[in-house]
Amino acid sequence: MKPQYLDWLHLEKIVTTREGKQIKVFELIIQDDEDILNSWAKHLREHYCADDEIDVLRSGYGLGRKEYLEKIKFPDAQVAPGPSVRAGDFSEILVADYVQYVLKYLVPRTRYDRKVNRNSSTMGCDLIGYKYGKANSKNDELIIFEVKAKASDVSPSAENELQKAINHSQKDVVRLAETLNAIVQRLLDRNDFEEAKRVQRFQNSTDNPYRKKYAAAAVHSNISYSETALKDVSTINHPDPDLILIVIHCNRLMDFIHSMYGRACEC
Q1: In which domain, by residue range, is 236 found?
Q2: Number of domains in the chain
Q3: Distance from C-alpha of 166 to C-alpha of 168, rounded to nearest angstrom
Q4: Which of 33, 143, 220, 222 could share a disulfide with 213, CB 3.0–4.6 Å?
């Protein structure tokens, strides 16, 4: 079911770079709706810990649910690099929801619940989505997203986040195989054999070809976002000439991210 908060994501404009590439720019406009915010927070929490597992997972520590999430599961709110990991995780999940519910891909959600270190980002491609038709159809499609975030209210810097995402997306070409393997392993851990089989379809593009797309996304606070900087991004060195580019910005984003992790501990 499409999360209701995605109705707050509005296409603001299309920015054309000096190379002629188009970037879709969205603004996320947060509304004062407790039901939607609570539903969103629950959705965020369940990426890290299924609600029907939390009592078993916390029992060995003797912690309540809130303390378990704060101290064991969620990236730290204050101790570095916890806040930046929060921003990165939140932004990846936001983009994953866009990919699944707006672009209509299936997106495996396996990246956050098996972290050994809560204050680190999971290695590999940030997210994949797939469209799966008949078995081994050449029209099956995989999209691979690289996501970067600058959620704090800091002035735009010379180090453009979308350019960083584009540059790092080049690495996805070689790390895709390992990412797909990790996703399949985590799905098997959950006994989700059906989705594991669907993802396995994309592990051998030589014998079973399919369409492959690459994409880069940047998520900003309103203050760290700069339309002028977007015009200077370059995709000339990326192997995919049709690289998809999107940007999302939101008012006081880092404050909102902290509030959502706090809400996820309570609702």
Answers
A1: 4-30+81-252
A2: 1
A3: 6
A4: 143
Residue 135 has pLDDT above 70, yes or no: no
Q: Report the DSSP pairing between strands 141-150 and 244-250.
A: unpaired
150-165: per-residue pLDDT in tens? 999 887 776 799 999 9
Helix, strand, or coil here: 161?
helix
Instruction: Report pTM.
Output: 0.96
Q: Is residue 50 part of a domain?
A: no
Handedness of CA 175, 92, 195, 136 (dihedral sign): negative
| DSSP sequence for 201-223 | TTS-TTTS--EEEEEEEEEEETT
Peptide bond into 81 cis (omega under 30): yes
DSSP single-letter state for residue 116: S
C-alpha triplet 223, 226, 231: angle, nearest 5°? 175
3 state SS of 120: coil
How do residues 77-104 score in pLDDT, each as one tens digit?
A: 999 999 999 999 999 999 999 999 999 9
Q: What is the pLDDT of residue 158?
A: 60
